Amino acid sequence: MNVGTIRETKVEEYRVGLTPLGVRALRQAGHTVLVERGAGQGSAFSDDQYGDAGAILLDTPQEVAEGCDLLVKVKEPTPAEYALLRSGHILFTYLHRAALPELTERILASGMTAIAYETVQQADGSLPLLAPMSQVAGRMAAEIGVHLLKRPGPGRGKLVGGVAGVAPARVVILGSGSVATAACRALVGLEARVTVISLDLDRLAYLQEHFGGRIATRVSTSATIAQELAGADLLIAAILVPGALTPKVVTRQMIRSMGPGAVIVDVSIDQGGALETSRPTTHTQPTFVEEGVLHYCVPNMAGAVPQTSTEVLTSATLPYVLALANQALDAVRQDAALAKGVNALKGKLTCPGVAEALGLPCTPLEELL
Q1: Could you give the residue numbers annotated as active site?
Q2: Which terminus of the chain has a lower count of CB atoms within 10 Å, N or C?
Q3: β 348-349/342-345 pair status
Q4: What is the pTM for the complete model shown?
C-alpha cells in the first residue's frame, strides 16, 4: 500500500503523523511511504532522516494525497485540506468530529474511510491511541495551571504548594482518566491540595489508593461540583465521552464562584469543552478572562511539545498503521478495537456518539463491511 503523511495545517500544530522510524518499519513491511517535505520539521525530524528511512519526499500535500491510499495525520483536516479528501482514501488521525459538523459533512461527501484515533477502543474500555496524548495533556495542564496562577498576569499570584504557615492552592480535577491521573501526579508532587470529582467510583478508589490518601475524591453531582469550585484556585476539566460532545457540567455561576484570578484549564475543549464559558483558543493566544477567571482552552495542547508527543503517539499508532497498510479494511474486520475507530465508511456515519451529537443517522459498521 502507499502510505502518506503531510505537514499539519492546524494553527501551531508541530506534530507529524509518522516518524522516520515509523517510515522505516513500513518500508521493511514492503510499503511505499510518501512524505511532504518539511512535514517533520516542527518535531525536529529532517527531510534527510525521512529520505534515509526510505520515504519518497514530495513538495506538496496534494501530491501526497493523490499518491497515497492511507493518509496518516495527527489532527483533523482543516478547511485548507478538505480538497485532499477523496473516495478510496483511508484517513487515520484524531478527528473529534462531534464538535466539527462541517468536517463531518466533507468526509461523508467524499466517501472516504475515516478512522479516528480517539475512538479506537479495547474490550476493557481503554483508548490506546488517546492515552499517550492524555498523559501529555494531563502533565501539561498541571504545568500550565501552576504557571498561570503566577504574576504577572491575571492569575491571583498564588504558589500552588504553599509554604510553612500558608495553605497550598485548592485544585479541582473533573474526570478520573488518563488526563486526571497525570495531572494528579504532577500536582501532588508540588503539594497542592487536590480534589478529584468523577462518576467512576472504581477509578476514584484507585486514585485514592494510588496517591496514598494525598488527594480527596468525590462523586460527581452538580451540587458537589458547585461546593468544590467555590473559592478554588485551579480547575482542570478532563471529562471524556468517547466520540461524543463533552457535557457542560460547569455553569457560569460556578465559575464566578471561584473568584477573580482563579485559573481553568479545559482539556475537554477538543470535544466542545466542559464549561459554559469555554471556547477554543490557540497557542498564540491561549487564554481569555470570563467572570474574572482565566481560561486556557487550547485544543491541541500536546502540540506545544511536538517531539515528545510525536514519538509517543507514533509508538501507539504504528501497529494499527501497519495493520491497515497490510490488510486495508480486512484489518478492521479482524480487530474489534480498530473497528470502534471507524467513524465514516462509504459516505455513511458509523460512530454513534458523533451521530447523536450532530443529529445525523448512524449506520452499523457491520452492514457496510
Answers
A1: 96, 270
A2: C
A3: antiparallel
A4: 0.88
